C-alpha cells in the first residue's frame, strides 16, 4: 500500500505541476514514517509499524477552496477513515431504539 501511495503522489506531482515543499521518508526495521507537503496545500503523513499497522492522513484544497483532511488507521480491523467530508449513516429512529431496548429487556423464552 505504501508503494501505491508513493506512486499516486508522484503522478499527482507530475500532472499538477506543483513543487514539493517538504518530503521525508524514514524506513526502519520496526516501521516507517513518510511525509510529503506540496505548495498547492496538498499533504500526506503516514507511519507504520512492524505489525502492518498504519496511521496517517492526507489533505488537499478542493476546487471549491475548501480544506479537506482525512485521517485513517489501517490495522487488523481494516481501513478506517475519518473526516468531515465522509458520509455518515442516518440516526436510528427512536421507535427502533425503543424496540431494541424492549427486546433486550424481554428475552424470548421457549
Walk me through this protein's architecture.
InterPro entries: CHIT_BIND_RR_consensus (IPR031311), Cuticle_Struct_Prot (IPR050468), Insect_cuticle (IPR000618). It comes from Drosophila albomicans. GO terms for molecular function: structural constituent of chitin-based larval cuticle. By secondary structure, the chain is of the alpha+beta class. The protein is 25% helix and 42% strand. The chain has helices spanning 2-16, 94-105, and strands at residues 20-28, 31-38, 43-49, 54-61, 67-75, 78-82. Strands 1-2-3-4-5-6 form a six-stranded antiparallel β-sheet, with no helix packed on it. The model has no long low-confidence stretch (mean pLDDT 87).
Explain the layout of strands and helices.
Blueprint: H1 2-16, E1 20-28, E2 31-38, E3 43-49, E4 54-61, E5 67-75, E6 78-82, H2 94-105
Antiparallel strand pairs: 1-2, 2-3, 3-4, 4-5, 5-6
InterPro entries: CHIT_BIND_RR_consensus, Cuticle_Struct_Prot, Insect_cuticle
Signal peptide: 1-16
Keywords: Cuticle, Signal
Q: Say how many strands there are.
A: 6
Low-confidence stretches: none
Structural class: alpha+beta
Distance between the termini: 51 Å
Cα-based radius of gyration, to the nearest Å: 21 Å
Features of this protein?
2 helices, 25% helix
Briefly, what is this?
The protein has 110 residues and is an alpha+beta fold. It contains two helices and six strands, in the order αββββββα.
